[in-house]
Design a protein that fits this description.
This protein is 33% helix and 22% strand. The protein has two domains: 4-91, Rossmann fold (3-Layer(aba) Sandwich); 95-304, Mur-like, catalytic domain (UDP-N-acetylmuramoyl-L-alanine:D-glutamate ligase), CATH 3.40.1190. Strand 7, helix 7 (142-148) and strand 8 (153-157) form a beta-alpha-beta unit. The strands form four sheets. The chain has a six-stranded parallel sheet, covered by helices on one side. The chain has a five-stranded parallel sheet with strand order 3-2-1-4-5. The longest helix has 16 residues, at 275-290. The termini are far apart. The chain is an alpha/beta fold and 358 residues long. It contains 13 helices and 16 strands.
Length: 358
């Protein structure tokens, strides 16, 4: 008899999980409390996957052997609480997909810079000829790609929300860009709970795995001192280049050292300028060195990367006034980095929802 898989949320991750679940011979139900987009309805219908919208049918959901929930659904949601009371396992789409691939996984989290670092790392690996996919908060669903592709590597952007429901998943290379207050409304305004969620990226790592982190971030540094970390640590920052990791050498050269092999490049030649982008380039560069990408390929990709849509995106110049779209900056520190990188007078147009940041 088929095991019953219920997926809460019919967005990109939920529909991807449904496709993989169907492939793995589960009896799948996709349930969304809101309206499902026509695009995703068509994908589900094409595969004869059962779905419902504008409701959660408790009698169906609580018969599940396994539940995959959208990262946007908090643990305090009523249906999640009821499922846990019945001891039904609840996991994320990333956790589920990780069970069905042997590909190496480069996983990136942080309060800021994770999307840029994810896409930059993917850019380097793709241009170096690796068979690589990009997933998580960017690109197509990880689960959908596992079902439909046969990649050797995945570069995966992970939010704290996704990390909450990951238990046995392991990153071969884990990258932690930084931790600053964000999404505290989700964590009952307790910074320690948000920090713990971010550090879940290290769970299950072993001695032959790698942990790349920002040595300039005080919260990250303090947490590392408290925790037992098995993976090989590779720090980066505006520091003297470490024996294994990245720093700034003479003449403003970005230096990456790994196993007595060195990469060097002037920060002026990086396609992405600004201190925050130096960090992003360092993290992506270290991951590439760990994967034995040639220095020439790393240098070329770091110098020709086009950047991320909606992140310091130069749109147009009218009558000498340049318009920059930075709508991806959704917290205080991300906005601070953006403003810091502009050297001309600024008219700043801002808005959005308070997430509990100071």
């Amino acid at each position: 008899m088929k095991k019953k898989l219920v997926i809460l949320g019919a967005g990109e991750s939920g529909v991807g999980a449904a496709i993989l679940g169907k492939q793995q011979n589960y009896d799948v139900l996709v349930s969304d409390y809101g309206k499902i987009s026509d695009k995703y309805k068509a994908q589900l219908a094409d595969l004869n996957i059962d779905f419902e919208e504008n409701k959660h049918s408790e009698d169906k959901i609580l018969k599940a052997d396994l539940i995959i929930k959208s990262p946007g659904i908090p643990n305090k949601a009523l249906m999640v609480k009821k499922a846990r009371e019945k001891q039904i396992p609840i996991i994320s789409e990333i956790e589920f997909a990780g069970r069905y691939t042997s590909a190496k996984k480069i996983c990136i989290t942080g309060s800021n810079g994770k999307t840029t670092t994810t896409l930059l790392t993917y850019h380097i690996l793709k241009n170096a000829g690796l068979n690589v996919g990009v997933a998580g908060n960017v690109g197509s669903s990880f689960a959908k790609q596992v079902a439909q592709n046969d990649y050797d590597f995945y570069v995966i952007e992970l939010s704290s929300f996704q990390l909450e429901d990951m238990f046995h998943f392991k990153a071969d290379i884990a990258i932690l860009m930084n931790i600053t207050p964000d999404h505290l409304d989700r964590y009952e305004y307790q910074m320690s709970r948000y920090v713990d969620a971010k550090f879940r990226i290290l769970q299950n790592q072993k001695e032959d795995d790698f942990f790349i982190y920002c040595a300039d971030d005080e919260i990250v540094k303090n947490e590392i001192e408290k925790r037992e970390i098995k993976a090989q640590k590779m720090p980066f920052g505006l520091i003297q280049p470490p024996q294994n990791g990245a720093g700034i050498g003479e003449k403003d050269n970005l230096i990456i050292n790994h196993n007595k092999n060195q990469f060097s490049m002037s920060i002026l030649d990086l396609s992405l300028q600004g201190q925050h982008n130096t960090y992003n380039s360092m993290a992506a560069g270290i991951a590439s060195k760990v994967l034995n990408i040639r220095n020439e390929d790393i240098r070329k990709s770091l110098s020709n990367f086009k950047g991320v849509e909606h992140r310091l995106e130069h749109l147009i110049k009218i009558h000498g006034i340049e318009f920059i779209n930075d709508s991806k900056a959704t917290n205080v520190n991300s906005t601070w980095y953006a403003l810091e990188s502009v050297n001309t007078p600024i008219v700043w147009i801002a808005g959005g929802q308070d997430k509990g940041n100071d």
